[in-house]
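tokens incoming
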């Protein structure tokens, strides 16, 4: 069963500010509750082909995975993907201007679980949706402070 979670939020900050902060892996531990550590596997800054390792805790389990940046349109779209582990995943951020001068940010996670993860996909989808909403709310609070 494929997983495809789309969440969005409006942040009262300019698009370039939101996009720059959210697409910088060094900021991930400040707004993603489940991400505990970030390690660059290629030279900074973020660019297509850059590789970044993350350590996360999700549903009580420690997860370690490396994302590769597959698409970067500054201020508009950022895509990272991993093909490792039991749950290959693609994460996409998009940013659009709102009529009030803020930013609408979308966060999409999609993947095709394998092994036991396939059985747990419905539970994982629900937990991911809750986590994404919480993380975007935290991002909003940080950027609007």
């Amino acid at each position: 069963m494929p997983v495809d979670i789309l969440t969005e939020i409006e942040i009262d900050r300019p698009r370039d500010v939101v996009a720059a902060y959210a697409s910088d892996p060094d900021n991930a531990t400040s707004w993603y509750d489940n991400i505990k550590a970030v390690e660059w596997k290629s030279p900074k800054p973020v660019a297509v082909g850059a590789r970044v390792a993350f350590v996360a805790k999700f549903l009580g389990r420690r997860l370690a995975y490396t994302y590769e940046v597959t698409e970067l349109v500054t201020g508009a779209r950022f895509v990272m993907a991993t093909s490792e582990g039991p749950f290959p995943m693609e994460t996409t951020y998009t940013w659009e201007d709102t009529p009030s001068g803020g930013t609408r940010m979308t966060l999409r996670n999609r993947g095709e679980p394998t092994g036991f993860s396939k059985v747990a996909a419905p539970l994982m989808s629900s937990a991911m949706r809750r986590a994404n909403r919480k993380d975007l709310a935290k991002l909003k609070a940080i950027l609007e402070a």
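note: The radius of gyration is 15 Å.
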